[in-house]
Amino acid sequence: MPFPFITLQYGERQRLRELSKPVEVYDLQLAVGNALNGLLPLQPAKNVFKVGIEEDNASAVDVYENDYDATHTVLTTDVVLIVERISITDLSYVMANTVSNMIYLKKTRKLSTVTNGLTVDILRLFGQHLTDLTLDGPLHDVKLYDILAIFTKLRCLIIENPYHGWVHDLLNADARNIKLLFYGEDNCFENIFSFIPADLLQLLNKNCKISVTCQNPCNETFQTQVERISAYLGPIFTINTTSVSLPFFMVELHYLANPDTPEASSRMLLTQFVSRALLEAQGLGNTSIQS
After folding, report:
1. Which superkingdom is the protein from (predicted)?
2. How far apart are CA 125 and CA 106, in angstroms?
3. Is there a cis peptide before residue 41, judged by omega within 30 degrees of 0?
4. Which one of 81, 230, 238, 247 is at 20 to 30 Å from 111 when CA atoms are compared?
5. Strand (E) or helix (H) holding 130
């Protein structure tokens, strides 16, 4: 329902204006439309492409007009920054500071931050428009279900590590049409493959594209790793080495080339597992394992 600002007495409106933070005043302006009597002076606001916030000085930020050109700016009450993208190195420190009073986060589309101190309440500050989220560090108090429940428009999620039951959480959140990347190089087989293959297939059938790096502490060959994963996933999955674009479960595998020679070197290959049924529906069958 519309904000009942006009039902307040004029003095009450003025008092509300005085007690409100700059971002709250801007929100009030959006809510009341042209009924601004008692809300003056107006809170100026400015659209900016990106803001970068460092933990050593949370009262000043780097304001970007594009991907490269930044101006170090001290925040004041003169203008609220409406931020499209934001990068924060210490989210808990920033949210406890005055910076959150001057930066309007409800229209932010891309957020990059750390997980240390991250809570569900902090994530809710960013509203419903977030489409891209990058989290640096392991998840602690926030789970995948929480993230997708808050950001219903999310299309790209980049986090460090999967955890036991991560696929189950994605299903409970009805994840669909999303790219999910686990970038941590210490992701163990047990945490990655802590799901029922049929559950993973459900995610792929909802157009999820999932990529993960899997550690290889025993220096297994590339083919041994692929065969172990294929055996776990079972016959409902197959390896896609075609040019056909399908929802996938991509695993980055590391191995030693020429391990018994002085020229042994570390190599990496990506292996894309897809729904066998979807691939065969394209008129293509199973492909051989590359070595």
Report:
1. Eukaryota
2. 7
3. yes
4. 247
5. none
